[in-house]
Amino acid sequence: MSPRALSLLALHLHDGEHALVRDVSLTIRRGKVLGLVGTSGGGKSLTTLAILDLLPPGVKRVAGLVALDSQPVEPATLRGRIVGLVQQAPRGGFNPLVSIGRHFLETLACDGLRGAPAWEKMQGLLAEVGFERPAEIASLYPSQLSGGMLQRVMLALALARDPLFLLADEPTTDLDLVVQARLLDLLEALVQRRGIGLLLVTHDLSVIARLADTVAVMDQGRIVELQSAHNLFEDPAHPRAQALVAAHRALYA
Amino acid sequence: MMQLQDIHHGYRQGGIFSRSRRHPVLQGARLTIGTGECVALLGRTGSGKSTLGRLVLGLERPDAGRILFDGAPLTDFRGRMAPATRRAIQAVFQDPQAATSPRFTGYEVVAEPLTVQGEASRDRVAELLAEVDLPPELLDRPAHRMSGGQLQRLCIARALATRPRLVVLDEAVNSLDLETQARVMALLRRLRAQHGMAFLFVTHDLRLLRGFADRSYVMQDRRPVEVADPFGPGPLPPVLQALRDAILPEMPRPRLPAGRAVG
Ligand SMILES: Nc1ncnc2c1ncn2[C@@H]1O[C@H](COP(=O)(O)OP(=O)(O)OP(=O)(O)O)[C@@H](O)[C@H]1O
Ligand SMILES: Nc1ncnc2c1ncn2[C@@H]1O[C@H](COP(=O)(O)OP(=O)(O)OP(=O)(O)O)[C@@H](O)[C@H]1O
Ligand SMILES: [Mg+2]
Ligand SMILES: [Mg+2]
């Protein structure tokens, strides 16, 4: 049976001098969206990367466990097939010397998909993230795409291997609102129809309002609040959560 | 102060060896920025906003058309800018990782434009960091060890350090949490009032414009079209209407009970 939940247990991260993330536990459930919000520099991206053992040099995991349905697993083995990742800075995730098409073909080859079927799958994925002429995009190099275009390609690549869980770090920050709305519809469909479990890291509470079931608020390396999206907006408890909701409300005043 | 007249610009696409054609991005583009003015540029992804920003910065030369700064050409016939002009125009790019050398420390990144004028000091740089809500610890941290939002704010501090006359802000506050975003916007307003700083504020988030932009343009059919009031009743350019219709609601809507698929 395929796993229903991906958990991170008691994660502690350290840079040699300071604790960066302290005692963070999260559970991502299939068919559900867990939002992760919080202060810039609060530890959202490092927490996300730790789930796949992709921490940058200089950051050490001093404690913490990753588990599928409460069975501890080796985080690196989850990459791609079980857990897809959309990184915060899309440009860094691409090899500048390799065309977009080849990025896909190499990824799809991991599952033995080659030739025409691989090409077709790539076109389908690129169309799904909103490209009207997928073949044209495939021939381009990363430097030839705008920020928002790269972000969508990154999502398409993360979905290429049909993962059960998706970790998306600011997946819509560089997108115009029309494309953002479309991508959020796509993510919702993946969660509801295909039963993907989604970790959605964003600073935009309207994205949380649109998609999240549960929300964790992070500040200075800790989770300071964890509750349903509905309750977060109606009745934020922690001062940090209250300030975030107030700043969000002000955008609509 | 800044005038773009009838600009045409495009790129060759595809690999070096592929049959490449020029892909038009801007056609007949016009835009003006007055002294101390905040001009917003809206548009769909891939519509040419960053391209226009690079032209204003003199990083690229247009295929055709003229760019004037204080009435004189922005670049000379070799494509070079006068040093004074270069200092007067600063930028914050969409992609902070690409805009900073990863090994530079927070201090080095922000001090760089100041050293030219001999104004760099740890105290001054710490002050500039505080303006964008960054703690002094970041003075000695290399850029590659910062979070996305910290690095973005470092780039904002650097761009504002010399108190330039014009700053191009290309999706500069998108990746910041909402509290920080509000504080950075307040800082920009203050600098504008104190120093008459002008901004070209490129964004896709219409919600940020209210009470900030003096004039707004939206990229429609490869050129910026000026809109009197982006929030008014219209008629609006179709692109702007579509962007406006796509603003997400403020609050979660009541959701279907768990487990029930839609559609
Ligand atoms: N490679 C690194 N080495 C040391 N410290 C790091 C490294 N990367 C990030 N940090 C620090 O760890 C803390 C958490 O960073 P992280 O990137 O997880 O924040 P974040 O919540 O994702 O912020 P943002 O919203 O700005 O993206 C920050 O204070 C940052 O400076
Ligand atoms: N160096 C380049 N080489 C080839 N094509 C390019 C290059 N830079 C940009 N383009 C193309 O020019 C068009 C406009 O890109 P630009 O980056 O200006 O868009 P944008 O409006 O800033 O989009 P976004 O909101 O996604 O950042 C896109 O179609 C892009 O593919
Ligand atoms: Mg981050
Ligand atoms: Mg851009």
From TrEMBL, chain A:
Alphabetical list of InterPro entries matching this protein: AAA+_ATPase, ABC_Ni/Peptide_Import, ABC_transporter-like_ATP-bd, ABC_transporter-like_CS, P-loop_NTPase
Molecular functions (GO terms): ATP binding; ATP hydrolysis activity
Keyword Transcription regulation: no
Membrane topology: Peripheral membrane protein
Location in or out of the cell: Cell inner membrane
KW Cell membrane (keyword) present: yes
Gene Ontology CC entries for this record: plasma membrane
The ABC transporter domain, residue ranges: 6-245
Keywords: ATP-binding, Cell membrane, Membrane, Nucleotide-binding, Transport
One Pfam family per UniProt: ABC_tran
Coiled-coil portions: none
Predominant location category: membrane
Family in the record: Belongs to the ABC transporter superfamily.
Designated name of the protein: Nickel import ATP-binding protein NikD
Organism: Teichococcus deserti
Taxonomic lineage of the native organism: Bacteria, Pseudomonadati, Pseudomonadota, Alphaproteobacteria, Acetobacterales
TrEMBL record, chain B:
SUPFAM superfamilies according to UniProt: P-loop containing nucleoside triphosphate hydrolases
ABC transporter domain sequence ranges: 2-246
GO biological process annotation, one example: transmembrane transport
GO MF term list: ATP binding; ATP hydrolysis activity
InterPro entries, per database record: AAA+_ATPase (IPR003593), ABC_transp_ATP-bind (IPR050319), ABC_transporter-like_ATP-bd (IPR003439), ABC_transporter-like_CS (IPR017871), P-loop_NTPase (IPR027417)
Gene3D superfamilies membership: P-loop containing nucleotide triphosphate hydrolases (3.40.50.300)
Keywords in alphabetical order: ATP-binding, Nucleotide-binding, Transport
Family the entry assigns: Belongs to the ABC transporter superfamily.
Protein name as annotated: ABC transporter ATP-binding protein
Organism listed in the record: Teichococcus deserti
